[in-house]
Amino acid sequence: MVKVSGWAYAANMLVKAAALAPFNQVTPITSVLFDFHSTLVDQGDSESWLNLALARAPHDLQDPDRQELLAFLDRIWENARVLDPQSSRDLNAGAHARVFHELLAQGPDVDPALANALYETLLDTWRAYEDAAPTLAALKEAGIKVGILSNVGVSIHHVLEREGLAQYIDGLVLSCEVGSVKPDTAIFQASLDSIDSTAAQTLMVGDSGHDDVGGTALGMRTLVLPRTRGTNHGLAVVVGLVLASR
To answer: Which InterPro entries does the entry mention (predicted)?
Structure first.
């Protein structure tokens, strides 16, 4: 069997999803699943991340080397799809750390102690979009079940608590805890089970036209909000869609 990756892999998954999707009756949306990174939380700016790492591992880093590293860190995960097309990094912490350091090695030279500090502070700059908590609160007020479905190789439980989002969540499914990654339908089904819902009743909200569309093979409505810069992600549209479905 010939394996495909990158954009060819994404296109192949979309074609399969379209072919497998059932024809459901139109029903009101009674539950919403959210991706986490770049959907509910922003990863923050690379300068804040680097400063946190330098506080742990002091290093003489002057311009232009600093600026070169900042530019690289800002987009470090964009090469992950090429380096790790099957998303093994999201199945366990060991693989996640390995892929991170392999990605980091593709950029400017980084002192090993600083490289470790960058990984250790990776989640410290993740901040909820300003419209994340209000959106989740509005959904809960409307009686909507809310779940999070995330491809992530490390625990994000503490981030949910720190950012004030945990109180709104009825179910949380992480790839590293269930052994499956989006767009595999298995992890979407696990997430539906976690909130006791069905695909026909559920809206999936994410930022990736590759990972977050896997639920369409189950008949799940899907909204893709491309990645944005800034404190607001336009999440209010989710509430509008849910209410309109009624």
So the answer is: HAD-like_sf, HAD-SF_hydro_IA, HAD_sf
User: What are the structural domain ranges in the chain?
Assistant: 6-42+126-244, 46-120
79-101 confidence digits (pLDDT tens): 898 999 999 999 999 999 999 99
Q: Return the HEC string of the chain.
A: CCCCCHHHHHHHHHHHHHHHCCCCCCCCCCEEEECCECCCEECCCHHHHHHHHHHHCCCCCCCCHHHHHHHHHHCHHHHHHHHCCCCHHHCCHHHHHHHHHHHHCCCCCCCHHHHHHHHHCCCCCCEECCCHHHHHHHHHHCCCEEEEEECCCCCCHHHHHHCCCHHHCCEEEEHHHHCCCCCCHHHHHHHHHHCCCCHHHEEEEECCCCCCCHHHHHCCEEEECCCCCCCCCCCHHHHHHHHHCC
Question: Tens digits of per-residue pLDDT, 104-136?
Answer: 999 999 999 999 999 999 999 999 999 999 999
